[in-house]
Design goal:
Number of helices: 19
Strand order of the largest sheet: 1-2
Radius of gyration: 23 Å
Oligomer: single chain
Shape: globular
Structural class: mainly alpha
Strand content: under 5%
Amino acid sequence: MTINGWVQILIFFALLTVLTRPLGAYMYRVFEGQSTWLGRVLGPLERGFYKLAGVDAKAEQHWTSYALAMLVFNLVCFVTLFFLQLWQNHLPLNPQGMSGLTPDLAFNTAISFVTNTNWQAYGGESTMSYLTQMLGLTVHNFVSAATGIALAMALVRGFARRSTKTLGNFWVDLTRCTLYVLLPISIVAALFLIWQGMPQNLSAYTDVTTLEGAKQSIAQGPVASQIAIKMLGTNGGGFFNANAAHPFENPTALSDFAQIILIFLIPAALTNVFGRMVKSQLQGWAIYSAMAVLFFAGVTACYWAESQGNPQFAALGIDQQASSQQAGGNMEGKEARFGIARSTLFATVTTDASCGAVNSMHDSYTPLGGMIPLINIQLGEVVFGGVGSGLYGMLLFAIIAVFIAGLMVGRTPEYLGKKIEAKEVKMTMLAVLCLPLSILGFTALASVVPQGLAGLANNGPHGFSELLYAYTSATGNNGSAFAGLSANTKFFNITLAFAMMIGRFAMIVPMLAVAGSLAAKKYTPPSAGTFPTNGGLFIALLVGVVLIVGGLTYFPALALGPIVEHFSMTAGNLY
């Protein structure tokens, strides 16, 4: 680890913290229906959408109606994207003549982008037409992100409102989020990325002859418009197969830094929105602080592990050092222009959030370095997390934390003036436990059937880590991978698609039930026995709950994968 590396990490976090409050204030006004500086321009367009769709913007929905609207919308999105991929060879804006996708790959990809996962079992520049990239993938980057934010607002309203049966209107939340938040920021970000050298065109690929006389086809297309929202919406699906390691998808160190900021920008701001809506910004900063503690723990561990490198290089005399460290750290699978600090920062941020974009190959990390992105997702991606999903995931853990605190002192637990009773705890645990059920269940299945084992590029514990990472990433709606896994098979396309659906919708429905139950409750004023939830003790308890729940659930699986691989590496065995 170097001082220069830590300066870059600290500058990133300082800038994120500075941006959190003003963006949170703006988003609060958007979702509260208050006037904003964009209202005069976009207001008529917003009202036109409602009139065209027959939506009454003033009519609010019960949690069941909110959930039904969300599910129907996502079903329509899935069907349209599925058939767009199947028939792309018959549609325009396909200068390279890309063929239609196979049904299983189209099914997997449609589920992937609808659930905000963006798992890619295909190479973008060799599979998708420009029309599919724009009308299919980019559009779903917007609406899947907006869906997550809308759902977070529904849960926050459950805490903020008193004795009511409604949580807002899904169609209004979806429209306002897309129109006033995602679209303006994405336009600015796309123009910035174009300035940095990212392509944005509809031209056919360029065929060139290299200096060695070889023929090469240089892929291009509408790249910047997709990359801006893939980062801002924590989607992560790359236009190119190499994702953010590709020079067209990440041209400079400045574009790399901007993309890392975009990943955390809205999740961080949503903590401020939460504080404003519950009338106590300290509550929002408490959630932000818990996320920050977990972020720094992860990036420190990952940066340290990759800086140590592989001790076998030293043992073989390859690094020409007498120490047990690899000279310069582990640079395998990393871009020299980004180095270890920016690579591990990107890896930590993209798996803290449900983004999945990568500027280095996680499969090439050291066992402990690769374990950190894996753990980040397994914790529920609540370390800032995906847009919307990070906040509502952390608030579910907050409910568990205050429930445990209530058990300790023999009181009915309370959070933000709402008594946490049996119904809320049951629904919360249902939402939290569906994730390990999917991750561990599908990993166990893939570990014993020939169709699962056939996809592994490595044997031993690293091969197991590849499987564990795939189903962790799918269930966590992340989308990154240990790239050694050959996932474009019927077995993986189908099982990973179901893992993505479980990770998204099996968590959302119980969460909305919790929101509806909380909204109907009366406000209970704090008393002398009320556990304060805006101070250091609550932050420590919340961090502890997140780590303990994750540790108890996944430690046996991690022990079979990256942990045993680490000890094997130190003993001289590599996989």
